[in-house]
């Protein structure tokens, strides 16, 4: 079992989730945080089963993820 950093965004019409460190587009969605997280985990499993180990961006691994806001 691998651990993934997953971004979960809250929008006015629900939640969207996507992993960091995978090649390709993998997205989950749901009405709640938990639904979006469950959906993206299922999408990650499907993505790996479909495309194999080549989907991993191994070097360098993502150690932490941050969200920052800045006015420009």
The level of helicity is 25-40%
- The coarse silhouette is flat
Question: How many β-strands, per DSSP?
Answer: 3
Q: Give the strand order, joined by hyphens, for the main sheet.
A: 1-2-3
Q: Give helix and strand order, one letter per element, not per position.
A: EEEH
Structure report:
The chain has 72 residues and is an alpha+beta fold. It has one domain (6-56). Helices cover 26% and strands 21% of the residues. The chain contains one helix and three strands. It has a three-stranded antiparallel β-sheet with strand order 1-2-3, covered by helices on one side. It is flat and about 35 Å long. The N and C termini lie far apart (40 Å).
What key attributes describe this structure?
3-stranded antiparallel sheet, alpha+beta, 72 residues
